[in-house]
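Case study 2.
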Amino acid sequence: MEYISVCGPDGSGGSTCKCISRLVMGTDHLGNLWQQWGFPEGQQPDAPEQRKLGARRMLDYAVQKGINLFDTSPIYVEGIENTLGAWLRDRRQQDPSLKLHVLSKGGFPFDLGPGSYDSRLHGSRKDIVRNIAEELRWSRPNLGHIDFYLMHRDDIRFVDYQDRTFGDASNPRTQTPAQVILEALSDPTVYQDIGHLDGHAIRDHYTWIGLSNWTTARVNEALQAAKANPALLPPTINSPYFSLFEMSGVYTIHSGGVEVTHHEMMDPNFQKGVVIMPYSPLGGFPILDKGTPELGGKDAWQNAKAVAKSLDTLHDRYWGNVYEALFTPENAARFERVHAISQKWTLGGRTYSIDQWLNAYVLAHPRVDLLAVGPIKKEHIDRTADTFALARALRKRPDVLDWLYEGKLADLAALAPFPEPTLERTVVLIYGETRPGQDMYLRGGIDHNYAKNNLGKNCTEDNRQCALPMVHQNVLTTARAQLGYDHYLDWYGAEPGQGDVQGSPAAWTTDRWPPEWGPKKTVAKDGYGETPLNTYGHHYWMLDVKMDCSRTVNGWFELKSYISNGPGWERNVSQQGAPYGSWNHFARCGKVNVFRRGESAPVEIKDFPQP
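Prediction:
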């Protein structure tokens, strides 16, 4: 996970900062946890209590992956704001030192029927306080004090999906100045005649305020108003729609939805002075998950388009605009480009899925600080959290970002791919006697303290500076391969999508397959069994990879073995001739390294045999 520092007034004349994860957990779709990857296409919903339990498990998993800001609202489905609040209270009671933050929203227009909305942010300062109090009467009991409180829509008015914010010639309407809205949200007055505030000033309910779906002109108007009057709370966060798939300009996904564009977000000075947290409200209408795996998701766009068209025909209240808003020729071309590059380009020897490219595209823009995401499965969180390396690479490649947005598919071949590290074949054979049902895994890399004190590296699980990029050579579809192969030799355990494993999987090998065991198994054909590299006997588990030797310490790296379902971690060893002190084995990159569990001296470290 990556983090940023968000700062603002502390309510007593000073300022304070919060360390916020760049991924923000959206909770709207957690309230339902729809079975078909977030869209209820003929699926029967779970019982309410099951849905709440599922939501809490997802929230726990988000914390495990480093997410610490949770985006909710009192109008989100299934009362998820209430479920989130109960979960937050439990987690904070279990671990008072755990820093978890909550973002909720108000300012939703009054819903007057399908496509007709009237603003809560219209009128005098007290009118606005009274209207917002109607929403806070739900959020305050649910969440207690709110860290970030966003006005979700500006002062707008829609009639039958048509924008009537400024009325018409016969009935003109004036939009409330942003300054008046900020005055209402900053109001310290305790209004005894506004019962929903329970004897508190509206300002007491939240630490900071923000904006959601406000035009750039209105965002800048609010920023200037706060700058001119220090008594006003400044908008700390702005949350617009932003995605590689732009809205058509004629239709928006929801009435009053506001987006920012690729070229705006590439400008470091765009909406300067506010943290920008884009969202893409497609968690409940997945495009990518409608693709056929055998086709690499190539058919996802057309399949999703057909579903969107059916919802348009049915005048679906929630998703009825998606077809006109998103399924444009321009977005179809963008899908073709992102699909093509996801199939052809690698980074550090690994590929990334289409959804990872889309999230990385957003995170790589200079003006993106946070990204609100709406995962409803653990693998969604895994894939999204595993996007940062690709986003960092894309941040250095504005040419690729421009191509994704408006390039020609045929020009992909002219783009210089990401530089790949020079990888050398490296094998580790380590003896560990096992029985059926037990597997061996390896962890390793460079010691964090050594790297900090001697290499000037501050290693973390996110930046993986002490991890060694690698590509497995034994990738046959065996029962072991079902556990999933990883992309780094590291100290951190399972990588996203790898499953419930303890590190890098090794393959069981032997020097001789006894006839009484049945037909001979070999690593080359079966993924386990005999291999010419094993001249030592049964139970030598093998890691066979191509490794980035430039990340080692003069060619050396550490490793330790783990055997599942019983033996666990091997005991500490002390290897002579190692580049620094450690309780682990040391192997040489580009060599065949042979060890026995729990023994300090290697069996041997040698060159690969000549062909």
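Residues 240-420 form one domain.
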